[in-house]
Every structure is written in C-alpha cells, then in structure tokens.
Automatic annotation (TrEMBL):
GO terms for molecular function: purine-nucleoside phosphorylase activity. Pathway: Purine metabolism; purine nucleoside salvage. The keyword Metal-binding does not apply. This is Purine nucleoside phosphorylase. It comes from the Eukaryota. Belongs to the PNP/MTAP phosphorylase family. Catalyzes the phosphorolytic breakdown of the N-glycosidic bond in the beta-(deoxy)ribonucleoside molecules, with the formation of the corresponding free purine bases and pentose-1-phosphate. Preferentially acts on 6-oxopurine nucleosides including inosine and guanosine. It comes from Sparus aurata (Gilthead sea bream).
C-alpha cells in the first residue's frame, strides 16, 4: 500500500471510530491467537492493514499469525481484529507486545476479546475444548517481566491496579450462555490460564508444578495484553483453545509441536468464529440496554 493511500484510509477510519464512540455505540477489539486469524472472516466492510505498513507497529514472526489489522463490522458493532499478536519469545519487550491495546484504548474501544491456543493442564480437559478464562497467573510477572513496570502513565491508569477481577464476570457469563445456545456446552470450560515466556513447551516437572499451582491451561501470551487492558479500564474476555494436552507423565510418548497447535486451531476456528460473532452481537444488545 502506498504511504498516501495508507494515510487517507487511516484518517477516514479514525473519524469513523470517533463518530461511533461519540454516539455511544459499542466497539470491540478481538486479538486472535495462534491459527485463529479466521475469526475476522465474518466481519463485513473489511479494511485490512499489514502490520509492516503501520509505522512503529511490531510485525508478526510466528507461523499462524498473519500480521494484519482488520477493521470491520459485525451487525452494528465496529470491530478491529488483530490477526496475530506478539510474544516475549519473539524478542519483543512487553511494552511492544501491549502497544496495540493502548492504541485500542485511544481509539475508543470498550471491550477486548483475547483468544489464544494453550496446552491443557487440567486432567479433565480435552483437545478442542474452549476455556473461558476466569483468571490468570502471570509467571513472567513474578520474575519482573511485567508490562506495567517502569514509569506509570497516569493518562492510562493508576500505579497499582487491582487484578482480582481482570476478566469481566458479565462477559464470562455471556460466553457460557452463548456457548450453550450454540450447543457447545460439552466442550466449553472455565479455568485459570498461566503464562510462561516460551518458546519451549514445558518439561514434565514444570507441568506438574503448574498443576499444583492451580493452573488449568498454559500458554505464551495474553496475560500482558489483559493486564494492560485492565489497567486502562477496558472490559476483557479471554477464550483459550486447548490445542494439546500437556504431558504430566514421564511414560507419555506424544510430543507437542507448533504444527499440531495450528492444526487444532484450524479445526476449531469455525466454532470459535460462531461463538465470537454471536458474543459480539449479544454484547452490542446488552450495551444498548445499559447505555
Ligand atoms: O495464541 P498464542 O500465540 O498464545 O499461541 C500459543 C503460544 C505460542 O505462540 C504457540 C505455540 O504453539 O501457540
């Protein structure tokens, strides 16, 4: 895309979003995890920007992350989809990883729906289950890798934000209700997501430790974005697709790999797409009722 047409398109989009926010209409950002970029497919009036064309925006370096920002609408809701997000293991700082969330806040987005692929720790979880994230454990944060370390920008939020309700109770309830309306109750769960930095998958001793700590699934993303979203007052919903079962047993022969993660994501993308689309339209109705 030429620089001139990029500037033209971003300016008109900017005014479009401002107008919608002024009129009190709800807008949502969807962050698509590994292999889940298809979530943007159902949006209408799409306009797509490659990350590499956006000044100072990080670029995706991982397979299954297309690296595109897609603007569109689902029913009356303005949506922006990130087809691919950023990770510590790519060499990005957590400030770069979470930059898009702050941009969404400045654009007037009210709610963020974060999706990811993760390994199931909870012995009851099966491959293909969708876990509504109830809470998280910020393991890198314990070691000082935290997106809010450093000077606090008061324009976004307070120095010491509360994280005990990072994932909106109303949105979690809605996700479970919509899941059951779509006939997905058998494979929709709720649980605690733990972030590790990656890029290696867990050792068996690490996986056993995570089970003892109360983690239901483990992945390499999401927590920084959610922390920054909550800091700046956005409503958050997290959906984690269980793409593999994490080995807790030395006798288990199967070995996890990224290709398998992407294969399961692709297999489940359509169900997630339906869930996300319906959730967005239901949220719009709810927000009209509460505005
Ligand atoms: O959706 P994310 O990016 O969290 O996906 C997981 C973590 C790694 O990026 C990748 C490993 O297969 O999947």
């Amino acid at each position: 895309m030429s620089r001139r047409s990029l500037i033209g398109q971003t300016t008109s989009l900017f005014f479009h979003w401002l107008e919608r926010c002024r009129s009190g209409l709800w807008s949502v950002a969807v962050i698509c995890g590994s292999g889940l970029g298809l979530l943007a497919d159902r949006a209408a009036n799409k306009q797509t920007f490659r990350y590499q064309d956006i000044p100072n925006f990080p670029v995706s370096t991982v397979a299954g992350h297309e690296g595109c920002l897609v603007f569109g609408t689902i029913e009356d809701t303005s949506c922006v989809f990130m087809q691919g997000h950023f990770h510590l293991y790519e060499g990005y700082s957590l400030c770069q990883v979470t930059l898009p969330v702050r941009i969404f806040k400045l654009m007037g987005v009210e709610s963020v729906l974060v999706t990811n692929a993760s390994g199931g720790i909870c012995p009851d979880f099966k491959v293909g289950d969708i876990m509504v994230i109830k809470d998280h454990i910020n393991l890198p944060g314990f070691a000082g890798q935290h997106p809010l370390c450093g000077p606090n920008d008061e324009r976004f939020g307070i120095r010491f934000p509360c994280m005990s309700d990072a994932y909106s109770k109303d949105l979690r309830r809605l996700a479970l209700d919509v899941g059951s309306e779509l006939g997905c109750s058998d494979f929709i769960r709720e649980g605690v997501y733990c972030m590790v930095s990656g890029p290696n998958f867990e050792t068996i001793a690490e996986a056993r430790m995570l089970l003892i700590l109360g983690c239901d699934s483990v992945g390499m993303s999401t927590v920084p974005e959610v922390t920054v979203a909550k800091h700046c007052g956005l409503r958050v919903l997290g959906l984690s697709l269980i793409t593999n079962k994490v080995s807790l047993d030395y006798s288990r022969e199967e070995k996890v790999n990224h290709e398998e993660v992407l294969q399961i994501s692709k297999m489940r993308a359509e169900v997630l797409q339906k869930l996300v689309t319906k959730l967005i339209s239901r949220c719009q109705q709810q927000s009209i009722n509460t505005h």
